Amino acid sequence: MSEIPPCPECKSPYGYDDGVRFVCPECGHEWSKDAAADSSDRPVIKDANGNVLNDGDTVTVIKDLKVKGSSLVVKVGTRVKNIRLVEGDHDIDCKVDGIGAMKLKSEFVKKA
Questions:
Q1: For the residues 73-93, what does the mean pLDDT come to?
Q2: For a Cys staple, 112 with which of 30, 58, 62, 85, CB 3.0–4.6 Å?
Q3: Is residue 34 classed as helix, strand or coil in its secondary structure?
Q4: Smallest Cα–Cα separation from 53: which of 64, 66, 44, 40?
């Protein structure tokens, strides 16, 4: 028997299967089984302006960033394409032109 996820609205553990969807008896919220399967416990990562970032987005650096262990600097306005979100302190994996693969903090970028 499959595990029924808690209600996304009120977090009630008493949801039930109603054929095509799940239903919460406490708040009356209904959600599809596909949406429940797609939801994950990954935190929402936002840029410096509060926009939600997704894998594959293009971002712009908003502050000069020194590259640890070298004399290189990622300049303000550098565009970084095709980012990948990861868990941890530095939550963006990317390749910066002229520098290579590196990790960035989302607080130092804005969505382009």
A1: 94
A2: 58
A3: helix
A4: 44
What average pLDDT does the segment 44-54 reach? Answer: 92
Q: Does pLDDT of 73 surpass 90?
A: yes
Place of tokens 């009120």: 10
For every residue of 8-22, DSSP letters joined together read: TTT--S--EE-SSEE
Amino acid type, 60 = T
Kindly give, in sequence order, each residue whose CB lies less than 8 Å from that of residue 79, ignoring residues fewer than 6 positions away. 58, 59, 60, 112
Distance between CA atoms of residues 45 and 87, nearest Å: 9
Looking at per-residue confidence, does 90 or 34 come out higher? 90
Task: Measure the CA–CA gap between 79 and 61, rounded to whole angstroms.
Answer: 7
The reported pLDDT for the residue numbered 1 is: 45
As a whole number of angstroms, the distance between CA 53 and CA 72 comes to 26
